[in-house]
TrEMBL record:
It comes from Micromonospora sp. CMS I2-32. The gene is mmlY. This is ABC3 transporter permease C-terminal domain-containing protein. It comes from the Bacteria. PROSITE patterns: PROKAR_LIPOPROTEIN (PS51257). The lineage of its organism: Bacteria, Bacillati, Actinomycetota, Actinomycetes, Micromonosporales. It is a multi-pass membrane protein. The keyword Membrane applies.
Length: 854
């Protein structure tokens, strides 16, 4: 059988080239996904500002949420914190006493920005101020003098160059929302490239400007020469004995500088896992479709082999070995584009904001090992499916079936079709009944897979049924070509289904995922920002606004209401709340005095004006589930891990699944990373238009640099995360859909090229080239329509319950042009893959083609 497998590959190159291409691209995508997942698991963040510290002690940037029992400290879900968790700088003295420690230095940071001509001067992602003592953890090389007294600052070289500042010059610095003048006492050169602007102040200024004074971001530890760092880390961990602290070495040290990288890990790992799973799923179907078509074209040969003594086991072995020979070469070569595709995908994901760009991309040997293994596994699985029926068919029946190709039903196909249809219906019901809000996508995603698999399993029968329906208009409009085309599609339903299935997969997956995302985006924007009113939105590019800014704006002409606006995330600890284990509650901070006008929320109990001090306003559903009302007390775990006791002052209605908890802006800002409100919302008094209001606000804040004056769309809401992930999902779905469309082209090219004899016979009995091409065009049109109809069905049964839950209507959100683009792409590829090889097949003379080997 090995000899026959090699001979088959030699004489049927086109069919196996198609399989090669499918495995090749599948392996490339899996290798790229493996790189993304490995990057997320490793989370290597090389230190920059703390590069000279051998060990770094930092706060743990995750919080363990009890899953069921609040007393169970083992059954917990680790979720990233929304804000930085600060640590006690007093730990320096304890760490200093640990054997092997040469010195320990506390590192604190706060928003501080140089401004020139009223514009912020920032190199990198943000500008931060630090105490000069922490500069030794760089280490920074200083030109000039350190800031030994108040009013002095050391600039890093990049920002000094951009600001045109030299030693001895004076520069304006915004810190804590207030602009002050400082003398440049020195210019510091970092040890390498840094992603943040660094300004260094004297100890007195650092304590005065830092809103979180008395706390530290991290503690850098310099080890004595010859000290074993792993042993030192263990000694420090035992000395501190605090589970809320982490002791970092190597590339883990950078997470102390960039805590936002920890949050990206929670997004990157599942994202790459889902994409890899979708790729494997599509790869198996794609290769099975291509191999299945190849085997169908050789049914007569296989039947002849059976008639001369070949056993079913030998036939299956031959098909497997054919697939294995092709898959091994394709899998090995598919690793090559994975080398480039992995970093490219990571760059796009980083640019979209899913993970911090400071995280180092890693693609070790495992993705290069797993990718080919999965590709070969997919090919063997497909070979088992493709070779099962021909191997079991009796020789005489096989020869007859090779001519007619009508049989396709088997008990495994029926059983699995029932199971997947059942799974699809079950997920539909779960989505419609049990799911609420954005989490409905957790069941909607697997649902489209179930529907697609179920439809693919019965696609020959559906193809025959739809072909019979379409035959009437096709014959009416296209005459003889329509008659021949419809006859071919109906008689060749099993082979045609091999082309219909990948089209259905591409259309179904693309439509479902695109419209799931657009629907979720609209819901997030609607329900997270509908309760906020603002004619003008002020955004700070220098770290935030001081509390006095709100009071200043209240007296501006044309202002009706003004409020600071802060966003974060947290958990309700007491009474125990199990509704937000996987992800924290969205928190919104507003000023109580203006809350009713700014939010537009009409409370069902209590008053938002009482939202001052240690108070909170809860959604009705939270109050009901926790059995708390106005006047009761809850304990809220904020984004920086702080637990605060709050009195409930109001309950208000909110869309289920998109609820937010409201707190006083001052309270929430105090527990944010910057310690300040980054936005201020302003509404216009009756009779004042937006332009007049913006001019009035601009005049009031003329002395506040780095302030952007924008409209309502600039409000930062929890929909921003959804938008970020949306573009990444669009990219990933486009890649998978594109890969599936390659399969469409493979299948159709192989199928059309294998019909040389049929096309030659038609021309011998009088058909012209034009008539033959018209017939192929009718077939391509019917294949496209059938594939689009089945793909649309697979997506619609997924989208209807999801949209009903999320938007309250069965029609999903999104442009009709998405549907048109997907259908147009499928049609263009189908026609090209059918007509181009068909035209080439007719270059030979009819008599030669009529006796050619299919």
């Amino acid at each position: 059988m090995t000899y026959l497998a090699w001979r088959t590959l030699r004489y049927r190159k086109l069919a196996f080239i198609a399989t090669f291409v499918a495995v090749f691209f599948g392996v490339a995508l899996i290798v790229a996904c493996g790189g993304l997942m490995e990057t997320g698991i490793r989370l290597a963040v090389p230190p920059q500002r703390l590069a000279a510290a051998d060990v770094v002690v930092s706060g743990k940037q995750t919080y363990g949420v009890p899953k069921k029992d609040p007393q169970d400290t083992k059954d917990i879900k680790s979720v990233p914190l929304a804000e930085r968790y600060w640590i006690d700088p007093g730990l320096v003295s304890r760490i200093q006493e640990v054997p092997g420690v040469e010195r320990a230095v506390a590192e604190a940071s706060f928003a501080a920005t140089v401004v020139r001509d009223g514009a912020p001067v920032i190199v990198g992602t943000q500008s931060l101020g630090h105490g000069w003592d922490s500069a030794q953890l760089g280490p920074y090389r200083l030109d000039g003098q350190p800031p030994t007294q108040s009013g002095q600052v050391v600039l890093d070289r990049a920002v000094a160059r951009l600001a045109g500042a030299k030693v001895g010059d004076r520069v304006d610095v915004v810190a804590g929302g207030v602009t002050s003048s400082f003398q440049v006492s020195g210019i510091a050169t970092p040890p390498g490239e840094v992603d943040q602007t660094a300004l260094f102040f004297s100890g007195d200024d650092e304590r005065r400007l830092n809103p979180h004074t008395g706390s530290a971001d991290a503690i850098g530890v310099v080890a004595k020469p010859g000290t074993d760092l792993d042993a030192l880390r263990g000694r420090i961990e035992r000395t501190l004995a605090d589970r809320k602290l982490v002791v970092l070495t190597g590339d883990d040290r950078g997470t102390a500088e960039f805590p936002e990288a920890v949050g990206g890990q929670a997004q990157l790992i599942p994202l790459s896992g889902v994409f890899a799973g979708m790729t494997v799923f599509v790869a198996i179907f794609v290769v099975a479709s291509t191999l299945g078509l190849s085997v169908q074209q050789r049914q007569k040969e296989i039947a002849l082999l059976r008639s001369i003594g070949a056993t079913p086991r030998q036939i299956r072995k031959m098909v497997r070995r054919e697939a294995l020979v092709v898959a091994v070469g394709a899998a090995i070569l598919g690793v090559v584009p994975g080398v480039v595709l992995g970093p490219l995908l990571y760059h796009i994901v980083g640019e979209a904001g899913v993970i911090s760009p400071v995280v180092e991309f890693h693609q070790g040997f495992l993705p290069y090992l797993i990718g080919p293994v999965v590709g070969i596994f997919a090919a063997l699985m497909a070979a088992n499916v493709a070779g099962r029926r021909p191997a079991k068919t009796r020789p005489t029946a096989g020869i007859a079936e090779a001519a007619l190709q009508r049989k396709w039903v088997s008990w495994p196909r029926v059983v699995f079709a029932i199971l997947f249809f059942g799974g699809g219906f079950a997920l539909l019901l779960v989505t419609a009944i049990a799911m609420r809000g954005a989490v409905a996508s957790a069941t909607a995603g697997p649902a489209v897979m179930c529907w697609a698999i179920a439809i693919a399993l019965i696609s020959p029968g559906l193809t025959r049924l739809l072909a019979a329906i379409l035959s009437v208009p096709a014959r009416a409009f296209f005459g003889l070509a329509g008659y021949l085309g419809t006859i071919n599609v109906r008689v060749r339903a099993v082979r045609v289904a091999s082309a219909v299935t990948p089209i259905m997969l591409a259309v179904g997956l693309a439509l479902a995922n695109f419209y799931l995302q657009t629907t979720q985006n609209e819901a997030a924007e609607r329900y997270y920002s509908d309760n906020l009113r603002a004619d003008v939105v002020l955004s700070s590019t220098t770290g935030g606004f001081p509390a006095e800014t709100v009071e200043t704006l209240r007296s501006a002409p044309g202002v009706q209401a003004v409020s600071a606006y802060v966003t974060s995330a947290g958990w309700i600890n007491k009474p125990y709340d199990g509704s937000h284990v996987e992800s924290p509650w969205p928190l919104q901070g507003v000023n109580g005095a203006s809350a009713a006008d700014i939010t537009g929320v009409r409370t069902t109990a209590g008053n938002l004006a009482d939202l001052t001090g240690a108070t909170v306003a809860l959604p009705e559903v939270a109050g009901k589930n926790l059995s708390v009302g106005v006047g009761d007390q809850i304990t809220l775990r904020l984004g920086d891990r702080s637990a605060v006791d709050l009195r409930v002052v109001a309950l208000y209605p909110a869309k289920e699944g998109f609820e937010t908890i409201m707190l006083p802006a001052e309270l929430l800002a105090a527990h944010s990373t910057t310690g300040l409100a980054r936005q201020i919302l302003v509404t216009a008094a009756p009779g004042t238009d937006r332009d007049a209001l913006a001019a009035s606000v601009r005049q009031k804040l003329a002395g506040q640099p780095g302030t952007l004056i924008e409209d309502h769309d600039a409000i930062t809401t929890f929909a921003e995360r959804t938008k970020t992930l949306a573009w990444v999902n669009y990219l990933l779905v486009a890649l998978v859909a594109g890969y599936t469309m390659i399969s469409v082209a493979n299948t159709l090219i192989v199928a059309t090229a294998g019909r040389r004899r049929e096309l030659g016979m038609q021309r011998l009995i009088g058909a012209t080239r034009q008539q033959a091409l018209q017939m192929l065009g009718v077939e391509a049109g019917m294949i496209t329509i059938i594939g689009v109809i089945l793909g649309t069905i697979a997506s619609v049964v997924t989208l209807l319950p999801f949209s009903a839950v999320v938007l309250g209507r069965p029609v999903p959100s999104g442009s009709i042009f998405i549907y048109i683009a997907v259908v147009a792409g499928a049609a263009a590829l189908t026609f090209a893959a059918t007509l181009l090889p068909g035209r080439r097949a007719m270059f030979s003379r009819p008599a030669e083609a009529a006796v050619a080997v299919d």
